[in-house]
Amino acid sequence: MGYWGIEMRKYSRELDCFFYPEHIAIIGASSEERSIGKQLFTNFMGTKLSKKTYPVNPFHKNVLGKKAYVSVKDIPYDIDLAIIAIPAKHVPNALQDCSDKGVKGVIIISSGFKEAGNEDLTEKMKKIIRENKTMRVVGPNCFGVLMPEIGLNTTFSVKEKSHLPKHGNLSFFSQSGALGVAILDWASTQNFGIHKFMSYGNAIDVDETDILDHMGHDKGSKVVTAYIEEVKRGRKFMETAKKVSKRKPFVVLKGGSQKATHHAISSHTGSLAGDMKVYEAVFKQTGIVHAKNMRELFSFAKILENEPIANGNRTAIITNGGGYGIVTADEFTKNNLTLAKLSSGSIKKLKQILPPAAGFGNPIDMLGGAGEKEYAFATKTALNDKNVDMIAVLVLFNTPTVDQKTVKELIKIKKTAKKPLVVLTFGSGYTQHRKDEFEKGRIITYDYPDIAARSLEALAKYSAFVKR
Amino acid sequence: MGYWGIEMRKYSRELDCFFYPEHIAIIGASSEERSIGKQLFTNFMGTKLSKKTYPVNPFHKNVLGKKAYVSVKDIPYDIDLAIIAIPAKHVPNALQDCSDKGVKGVIIISSGFKEAGNEDLTEKMKKIIRENKTMRVVGPNCFGVLMPEIGLNTTFSVKEKSHLPKHGNLSFFSQSGALGVAILDWASTQNFGIHKFMSYGNAIDVDETDILDHMGHDKGSKVVTAYIEEVKRGRKFMETAKKVSKRKPFVVLKGGSQKATHHAISSHTGSLAGDMKVYEAVFKQTGIVHAKNMRELFSFAKILENEPIANGNRTAIITNGGGYGIVTADEFTKNNLTLAKLSSGSIKKLKQILPPAAGFGNPIDMLGGAGEKEYAFATKTALNDKNVDMIAVLVLFNTPTVDQKTVKELIKIKKTAKKPLVVLTFGSGYTQHRKDEFEKGRIITYDYPDIAARSLEALAKYSAFVKR
Question: Which of A12, B84, B147, B458 is spaced 20 to 30 Å from B287 by Cα?
């Protein structure tokens, strides 16, 4: 057992210093208002890490009441993690100090390197890293790490402005810092829990393959998600992705999927975007779940974390609104889902319960008079039908006959369901409350058929990869 | 001036009885708990229409305290609008009574006709309508009409469960009742205002072309939106759509876009879905804005209502987060928007204000230190650049330098802007409040780049049609 009472792994061990540090130095910690150095240090104070966090600042004796050191070398403890947030031109010297001190891991928050055309500074840092051999470096031009379980947060995001997500099972790494933190902030509103987050910026040393390997082995990370602009070590990344994907879903949003944006990427993190066709081929081969936009990234992660592996893509749609069923069926069909053909036995059963004017194809249209009894019966029938792999239950709460009882019934059924089962519903206040109840009962809900379709497709595809 | 103090039109006048009725009969009004007849009648009580609304029910002397009539023929006033909500088999007789009485418009809420295979009942009703010559009929199997401006609501939606949208400039007609009402409910949360809504179901008489013609001429309907499963009179619809589109945007979501869902449509409203390719060709020719899903339907309507016509599709992206800019540029490019090339003069100006490490291409990446000054300057520069047709301003509020001042500046600029200008931002509470401020200041905001891209593309396409 390691320092944090969390089992240490035998793989990618060198990244452990970033997630389980004991002694931490903050180079550039400052009391100056609105400065990054102050925000960074403030984010450590008030956590249980604060006692063993040391400010380094040659211009001040104290930073926010804590004794400051002139150099990291002056700190009388072994430093596991140093975070550097000082102007670019001074970073190589600070990094050299870290190397001399024997610091295990360094996060360089500072920007103004390769992405700003300062190749010489980048080369200096690379030389220091090469010569040290064991010290690992994340960044520069990044936000560092976040691990809600232990209160670790090296980002300089402002607490009043962005919430941090709670502890959970998703891990996420992002080449872009701001986008990463904004996604975390948004995720905090979405019933998501995060295990580990790492923003890795210009990737001067630690790159996407290192992080993927770490999170891929990490038991706390049930699903790994990433925003990537460029892959540095193509072959190694593919090998790693394939191994990880067999164990757990790996969802990727690739920035710079369009030629027209490659120039922007080179000025953002100084990397080359590459041809999207190559990436798509790699994603397919390695079982990577390919999110085409931000909305899909976490939506895919959520369904992959929450739902069982599907036996196929044959989906049953159950609805109390004909039109809603039709637009949903349209989206499902567009997104490579098959509309399940229910067995004749199932249809016979449904005919006993539903009104004669109901639709007994797929969607199963129970009509506007359906209540909890009809919903429970139709859902169970679909779950027991061998021609059905996944189930989408559509509920329009505007009718007089659907209410909380329907929510309760479906949550009860979901508890023992062995097939993926999601709910689609949309509307204002009343519907939003029912949505929250579904989510608390561990049933994923969607407002829009298109994202439900895309998510179920991702689940079906990943399921096929795992079963291959 | 007509009864409602609203100028009557000289076109499609026969539909006016549905939107501006004076005396209203509710056939099937009832006191029975949880019944559609009670809900319907209840929705009329408490509005200023209640005094001239008369229940028709042969089994009761009173309905909710109001004298009930055995037949519509017994009501001692001329009836403009009768609403029928009784079992299908009794509907032809009630309709005959309406015809005899000289009722101008009838809405048949009841279902169980063509969609349930009861062709004979449908034929009986058609005969009555043919013989009457002037009476117009909406439905059956529909929710009728809604007009917030005068409190008219013939839907049987439960008030506690679904909010009605406020009065505004969008009009909406839907073949599906439940979907239509659910969309209205959802719209009530989205800062939308509705002028007229009509759910027309099986379209035994009044069809999509009639309604489009009415809303197309109606001055209160600035944008017309529709959910359509089938078009009955193809040529006439095309002619009408083309004329309407020249005057105002007409946005359509077509249910049954996929072959696999055609069967479901025939059991839903008893109509034939037709080939989507034909529809797509029609949409293009007639300037119809084609929404591919529910999310797009109102998103397109909103941007078309709010933003000026664009000169082209060259879009400038302004951002304080590099990665957010890149995923946005990816989506824009995917959706046929051109990334604008700013003039050298604009770039020169920007270089005077933004830090040297900023990205001066498109996206214009102002970096994480940008505040209201940078946002205002970059936005004005883009507005004044002749190479820019539309502007997307991306704001990540997690940084210490962006706050309400940026919102205020952008709202001020937007007031006099002659080019489409939208904001993208996403995050939790703090960001949501800023989003609300933007929306109140009449700046449309998006969470996700994909829907922003789709909406701007729709605006650019419609603009090109209008300018053709």
Answer: B147
Contact present, A254 and A280 (Cβ < 8 Å):
no
**Residues B134, B104: contact at Cβ < 8 Å?**
yes
Burial B434-467 (b: 16+ CB within 10 A, else e): bbebbbeeebbbbbbbbbbbbbbbbbbbbbebee
pLDDT value at position A1? 32
Nearest CA in chain B to A425: B182
Q: Which residue has the tokens 């009472």?
A: A5
Question: How far separated are the first and last CA of chain B, in Å rounded?
Answer: 36
Rounded CA-CA distance B70/B56 in Å is 6
Task: Please tell me the distance from the alpha carbon of residue B392 to that of residue B396, in angstroms, as a whole number.
Answer: 13
Q: Is residue A353 within 8 angstroms of chain B, CB to CB? A: no
Q: Which residues contact A167 (CB under 8 A, 6 or more apart)?
A: A148, A149, A193, A194, A195
Residue range A371-391, pLDDT digits in tens: 999 999 999 999 999 999 999
Strands, DSSP E only, in B324-420?
Answer: 338-339, 364-365, 390-394
Longest CA–CA span in chain B (Å) reads 83
Distances (CA, A) of B195 to A53, B146, B152, B218, B386: 61, 8, 11, 10, 36
The DSSP result for A151-169, as a single string, is TEE-----TTT-PPPEEEE
- Test A295 with B320 for CB contact under 8 angstroms: no
| Beta-carbon contacts of residue B14 (< 8 Å; ≥ 6 apart) | B104, B105, B134, B136
Instruction: Tell me the DSSP string of B253-278.
Output: EES--SGGGHHHHHHHHS-----HHH
Q: Residue B38: helix, strand or coil by DSSP? A: helix
Query: Taking CA B103 as the corner, what is the angle to CA B98 and CA B104, rounded to the nearest 5 degrees?
Result: 135
- What is the C-alpha to C-alpha distance for residues A188 and A192, in angstroms, rounded to an integer? 6
Cβ–Cβ below 8 Å for B361 and A263: yes
ipTM score for this prediction = 0.85
B246 Cβ contact list (under 8 Å, min separation 6): B287, B466
Nearest-CA distance A414 → chain B (Å) = 25
Q: DSSP letter for B67, please.
A: E
pLDDT in tens, B315-373: 999 999 989 999 999 999 999 999 999 999 999 999 999 998 899 999 999 998 899 99
Q: Quick one: how far is CA A222 from the chain centroid?
A: 10
Single-letter code of the amino acid located at A57: N
CB distance A391 to A421 below 8 Å:
yes
Contact A125, A91 (CB under 8 A): yes
On whether the CB atoms of residues B453 and B331 are closer than 8 A, the answer is yes
Position B97, amino acid: D
Short-list A161, A227, A270, CA closest to B425 = A161
Residues 288-317 of A with CB under 8 A from B: 292-295
Give A240's contacts (C-beta < 8 A, 6+ positions apart): A209, A212, A213, A216
Which chain B residues are Cβ-neighbours of A368 within 8 angstroms? 177-178
Question: What whole-number distance in Å separates Cα of residue A82 and Cα of residue A71?
Answer: 11
Mean pLDDT by 10 residues, chain B (468 residues): 39 80 96 86 90 95 94 97 95 97 96 83 96 94 92 84 86 90 81 91 94 95 94 90 96 82 66 71 92 91 96 97 92 96 97 92 93 97 98 92 96 98 92 94 94 98 94
